[in-house]
Structure formats: C-alpha cells, structure tokens
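User: Structure with adenosine monophosphate, tokens only please.
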Amino acid sequence: MSFEKLGLIKPLLSAINELGYEHPTLIQKRAIPLVMAKSDIFATAQTGTGKTAAFGLPILQRLRKSDGSSDRALKAVILSPTRELSIQIFEDFTQYSKHMKVECAVLVGGKDIESQQRILKKGVDIVIATPGRFLEHIQRGLNISSVEVLVLDEADRMLDMGFTKDIRKIHPLLPKKHQTLLFSATYSDKVRKLSKLVLRSPAFIETSKKNSTVDTINQKVYLVDTHRKAELLAYLIGSRNYPQVLVFTRTKVSANELFTELQKDGLKCGLIHGDITQAKRLKTLSLFKEVKLRVLVATDIASRGLDIEELPYVINYELPSVPEDYVHRVGRTGRAGRDGEAISLIDIYEKYDIKEIERVIGQKIAQETVEGFEPDPNIRRKDIDDIKLKSEHKKPEKKKAREYNKNTSKSVKTKTTSKKRRTTKRDS
Ligand code: AMP
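Assistant:
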C-alpha cells in the first residue's frame, strides 16, 4: 500500500516524500480513508505509530481550497494534553502543508493570549490547542461556527490531566454536524465514557495490543540500590557510550536532584518539568534535538509531547506511579520501526511496581544486575527489619520517628527519601 493509493493529493505527497516517509504506517492505512469519508473514529494508537499524520494528512486534504480562494474560517481543531505535544503537532502540520495554502495556529497556555488573538484575527484554518486555552479563546469570542473536524489527541492523557470538564464544555459549543476523531493510547473506562459522549457511530481502529509496548523496543531492568542509581546511570552512559539518553524521574524533586548529580559527573544535561518555564523547556528541548545536550532529565509531563528522531535510549530512573505511563515513556524510543532500548533502574521498593507494569504490558521484562552495582543484600535485610519494626509500632509518635531516622544508617535514610518521593505529588 502506498500513500498514492490512499488517494492523497499531490501537495501532500510531495511533502511526505520530502520527509522521507516511504510507506504509510498501519494506523495511517486504516485512518486516512475513514477520515476522508467523514466518519467519526475511535483509535487506540500509541505515540510513535505515526498517528499525527494519520489524522493530519486527511484533515489537510479536506481543507484544500478547491476554488483557489484564500478565505479563511476555522475548520479543524486539534486538542492535545500538553503544550509540548501541541507544538509538536503544529510543527508536523506545518511540514505536511508546506505546499498548500493552509494557515495553522497553536494556542497553548503560558503564552501571551493577546498575541494569539491577533493571529486568530488574521484568519486560520486549523487550530492546535490545549483544552483550557482553547476554551479561553472561545470565551473571548473565537468563532467556532464553521468547525468541521475535532481531534482529541491522547484523550486518555487529557482526562488524566483533569481536562474532562473543559472538553465537556467545548463539545456542545461546536456545530452539531462535526466529525470527531478520538485517539488514545489506552482503552480506559474514562476514555470509553468520553467516547460515548462525543462520538457518533464511530469506526474503531486498534493498531496495537491493549497497552502493549512497541515491538522494536528492547526492554531491560537493572536491579540497584536506591542510593546508587545516579552513579549507575552515569556509569552506563559513559561506559556504554550512549550518545543521547532521555531519563525519566517520578517527581520534580528527584529530577532536580538527578540533574545536579549528573552535571557533577560532567555530563551535558538538560531538565524539563512542570516548574520550569515554557520558554526554558522549549529551549532545552531544542538544544537536546541539536545534540548539544547528552542527557535530558524529564518528569512524565515531557513523556507525551516529545518527538525526537531516532532516540535510541530511554532510561527510567524511577518507575512511573501509573503503570500505563511506562508505555508512554518507552514509546519515546523505537519510533516508526526504529530499534530502541528502554532501561529501568529499579530498587527494592519498585519490585511491586515492575510487576504491575508487566501485567499491564502483558510481558515479562528481563531483570539483570550490572557488575559492581549489585544490590547490597545487607540493605535488604535492614529494610525488611525496618518494615517489621514499623508494623510492630503501628503509630509511632512523630518525635520518635524523627529520632529513629536520625540514628539509623545511611541506607535506611535513603529509603526514607525514596518513600517521601513516592508520596510527592506527581508532576504532570
Ligand atoms: P507520531 O506517532 O505521530 O508521533 O509519529 C512518530 C514519528 O514517526 C514521527 O517522527 C513522524 O515524523 C514519523 N512518521 C510518521 N509517519 C511515518 C511514515 N509513514 N514513515 C516514516 N516515518 C513516519
């Protein structure tokens, strides 16, 4: 099957040819004809499957001005969970439409709303936005009466991030007869509920097994003690000559700590998380893309929106608190059929988490140790004793607990830090 056979018009064929796409991916083969036929769609597809082009190309084709006119009215709206992902989609649309007269705008929070309004006033055909900011624009008078297509990209993520209310508010404001395309990496109850609300007789597309990770990713688990994780990470990057790695932590606190540690180890390192300004995040991302940084430390906020070509290594410095996020994190590597390696550094406390992840992805991940970094069996013994001790004194007074921490060895203190991390609010 070729892109020509899918019936795409010449300007789009030239653009994808220039991007080096030779054959449509599975989701593209299935979705493109359906989008062109104006059907609603419910697609489960992970990042890396080529889903942006799967909705982007047929939408652009539909918006082609057959009469050659340059009148602009907002025809398509793409909602995505994060600023980074919205910008990525905008960049993809810009590439795909380079031989067409189509105007796209990206509307994300953290950027000046007045300047976005000025762009909208000039007239745009397509808007790519985060739900909150899009709603703000509607409330400020954005005309959405000619919208024909709504895309909910990474719908599961949008719902997890608390955008349910915004989507429920936006949907009834759109013209009654619009087409809705819903893309989600997972098939959760929340997504199913939303699909019932927004989709009309949708076509279902399932391109991968439920929550399965991409086949081309080689997944590994290295067992290591908590306090030696940073050291092991630096060792792996150095001794194995990893050219570039994306490293995930569970919280902003541990991302900051790890960033400082890796810099001390002399690694050129960038940091992306929710407390870092949008401008700084974008700057860091472009430095990473230009290979001016070797390591990018990120919390899960970055795990969806990043599109970095041929990223060979993803390292989970800490496992995510939600097993499904593992799929999204490792989906940063092995993209569009390329090989990738996803390594998780796990300590004694994450053994349960990895079992949950294996259950969700439906496969076992090999567990290994790295010579010189084998977990210390004495630490385990102490930890188990500590757990026993805690269960014997179910409600220790705060003061006693503080004294206990003060008097215990470094390894137990490390464990306390790790537990604290675990309960810290997720960064998303
Ligand atoms: P996505 O799942 O949309 O984030 O796309 C993942 C990556 O695959 C992006 O870097 C796209 O540029 C690339 N891509 C999308 N479609 C194709 C294709 N048919 N052939 C090769 N690469 C593609």
